[in-house]
Amino acid sequence: MRKKLEAEGYKVSGYREDPSDALMDAKGGRDNLFVSVESYMPATDLVFSVNTPCFLPPA
User: Fold this and answer.
1) Which tops the pLDDT comparison, 59 or 42?
2) Alpha-carbon separation of residue 24 from 17, 28, 54, 59 (angstroms)
3) For a FRET experiment, which of 37, 49, 52, 56 has its CA 20 to 30 Å from that of 16?
4) How far is CA 11 from CA 35, 38, 40, 42, 51, in A?
5) Using an 8 Å Cβ cutoff, are 25 and 12 in contact?
6) Which residue has the higher pLDDT, 2 or 40?
7) CA angle, 41 then 10 then 44, to 5°
8) What pLDDT was estimated at residue 59?
9) Does residue 12 carry a pLDDT above 90?
């Protein structure tokens, strides 16, 4: 995941990996989004969080 995001123009601002979990925060890409990815053991699930600007028109 880290290599893919970096290839898409994201800058990793936080990364931790150990036997029980992995966490990564990155910002950038074409739309300058903030992405947070978490994984826990057993490695059957990933949790993604993406913060985006509001896509609703004003008012």
Assistant:
1) 42
2) 9, 13, 23, 35
3) 52
4) 10, 17, 23, 27, 15
5) yes
6) 2
7) 15
8) 64
9) yes
Closest alpha carbon to 13 in 1, 24, 29, 2: 24
- Please give the pLDDT value at position 25: 93
- Report the C-alpha gap between 35 and 48 in whole angstroms: 7
Task: Show Cβ contacts of residue 12 under 8 Å, excluding neighbours closer than 6 positions.
Answer: 2, 5, 6, 24, 25, 26
Cis peptide before 42 (omega within 30 of 0): yes
Q: Are 36 and 49 spatial neighbours (Cβ–Cβ below 8 Å)?
A: yes
How many residues are listed for the chain in this entry? 59
